[in-house]
Amino acid sequence: KAGVTQTPRYLIKTRGQQVTLSCSPISGHRSVSWYQQTPGQGLQFLFEYFSETQRNKGNFPGRFSGRQFSNSRSEMNVSTLELGDSALYLCASAIAGTRTDTQYFGPGTRLTVL
Amino acid sequence: GIQVEQSPPDLILQEGANSTLRCNFSDSVNNLQWFHQNPWGQLINLFYIPSGTKQNGRLSATTVATERYSLLYISSSQTTDSGVYFCAVARRADKLIFGTGTRLQVFP
After folding, report:
1. Is the preceding omega at residue B8 within 30 degrees of 0, hence cis?
2. Least Cα separation, residue B69 to chain A (angstroms)
3. CB–CB of B92 and A88 under 8 A?
4. Least buried of A22, A74, A85, B16, by fewest C-beta within 10 Å?
5. What is the pLDDT of residues B10-38, one digit of tens each?
6. Which chain A residue has its CA at the smallest distance from B36's CA?
């Protein structure tokens, strides 16, 4: 089985722009979660989608949004980029996202905001 | 929310040495996972271990849920073990909360 894929792998944007990141989960997995990793804040949960519905949300401003498509692929969008949004964005997939599920992570998208 | 603390924050070893990484959490959890993040940023799931003991090759993990801690053992370490080890916990189907990690460097 192919693993979790994320595109693009690297991205450079300027303040005020918006960005869309994509995540394709492992085939058969219906849960997709997004995390932001920065040196200062560590790994923080952004949101989780299951069957096209947002099921869980972290403490991030409304500039961060996401969606999931019927094929379980997910996108996250960050509008009005700020310097502090520079981070590694990781996507994880799980079969159903229940408490017993193992999460499998993609390679990440490294976003730099100038 | 649940607090997750990992120790030590940094660990430097020579190849062949053994090590123990610790994860303390502040509340009962239903989900506990150990991850290894390689130098390129890829997070690899090592263990799903909300309780009990598991072994996978040179790695093993033990979680004592009643005392709210988990241990990851690495035996006969290799340079490829270098990276950051994270413990992550969750209650029910809630979001995973990650610890701050232990950065391991293994030198030949």
Report:
1. yes
2. 18
3. no
4. B16
5. 999 999 999 999 999 999 998 899 999 99
6. A105
What tokens appear for B54 in the block?
A: 């598991």
Does a cis peptide bond (omega within 30 degrees of 0) precede residue B108?
A: no
Confidence band (pLDDT; 50, 70, 90) for B103? very high
Tokens of A69: 């498509």
Predicted pLDDT at A98? 66
Q: How far is CA A5 from CA A18, A75, A79, A101, in A?
A: 21, 12, 22, 19
* pLDDT confidence of residue A97: 64
For B67, the token pair is 């005392």
Query: Under a CB-based contact definition with an 8 Å cutoff, are residues A21 and A108 in contact?
Result: no
Are A42 and B100 within 8 A, CB to CB?
yes
DSSP string, A38-64: ETTTEEEEEEEEETTEEEEE-S--TTE
> Model confidence over A72-114: pLDDT tens digits?
999 999 999 999 999 999 999 998 766 567 889 999 999 999 9
